[in-house]
Amino acid sequence: MTAPLPFNRPEQAPSAPPEQVAEELAITDAVPAPAELGPTGRPMPFLPDPRPVTEHGNARVISMCNQKGGVGKTTTTINLGAALAEYGRKVLLVDFDPQGSLSVGLGLNPHEMELTIYNLLMEPDVRLEEVVVPSGVPGMDLLPSNIDLSAAEVQLVHEVAREQTLQRVLASAVKDYDVILIDCQPSLGLLTVNALTASDGVIVPLECEYFALRGVALLKTTIDKVQARLNPRLEIDGVLGTMYDGRTLHGREVLERLVQAWGDKVFHTVIRRTVKFSDSTVAGEPITSYASSSTGADAYRQLAKEVAVRCLDA
Ligand SMILES: Nc1ncnc2c1ncn2[C@@H]1O[C@H](COP(=O)(O)OP(=O)(O)OP(=O)(O)O)[C@@H](O)[C@H]1O
Ligand SMILES: [Mg+2]
């Protein structure tokens, strides 16, 4: 005798009435589809808009830091700041690079500045309100800088508590702003150590190309040393892939290695390479206003949401 066919098995339940089948199918349809993978190869989380704020103050101070030049520190400072300001946060940008690119990128002329961050660092009588200028973006101010700041690095060496100088300068601003972003110069010298000492968090922008990964170990050692010796509250808020080209295998491999090395510290948001950033610098304004609906502007708005989830609204 042949074995009974499966549909003839006596233990098999009778088929469900059509209404029940439809109901079950509806339930199956309601299960969310698996989250789409983001450019970093991890599922992209839902990022809510930053929580509206009714009162300003108790700013989180965040440094943009990488000793490698041209990786997007200044671009990220301007555009993350502008995106956070769009979401209603009161933002202060600190140009802490003697190249003054942040100030120039917001349309200031380096030769026409009467007072800069240099005066605040070196002259105890100068008050922060005298140096702060509007950035052109509503809700975002700027502490400008120019080449004078390079002298501070030399002069500060002789000061007592030289590493805490910027922290003292910014102390009075913390109560007025929600976020203070410090644009560091491409070095790990005394100015950068001052920025890290004054900060609650650090964001490391990294260009998505192979050599970008070199030198990151040294940066991590510096951050660890500042945290151990000068500023125990310092955290790495995130590592940001910049100038990403998703069409190349190379770019994707670099992101993969970043995630292997830094895990969840790597932001899900990645900034793609586009000439719009250079164009907006020439125009002296953030990409969020220069090309408001561009992918670059959207990327920095998404980064603002991710930063809010990680360390502002947490
Ligand atoms: N995502 C991007 N796509 C294309 N160009 C970019 C991007 N981000 C920045 N740039 C351009 O790359 C150049 C370097 O960027 P940026 O000045 O932000 O780097 P940086 O790390 O601040 O440099 P430095 O170390 O000299 O201060 C600028 O001309 C900028 O306009
Ligand atoms: Mg810069």
From TrEMBL:
TM regions (residue ranges): none
Task: Please give the Gene3D superfamilies that the UniProt record associates with this protein.
Answer: P-loop containing nucleotide triphosphate hydrolases
Q: Where is the AAA domain?
A: 60-236
**Region of interest (Disordered), residue spans:** 1-22
Report the protein name in the record.
ParA family protein
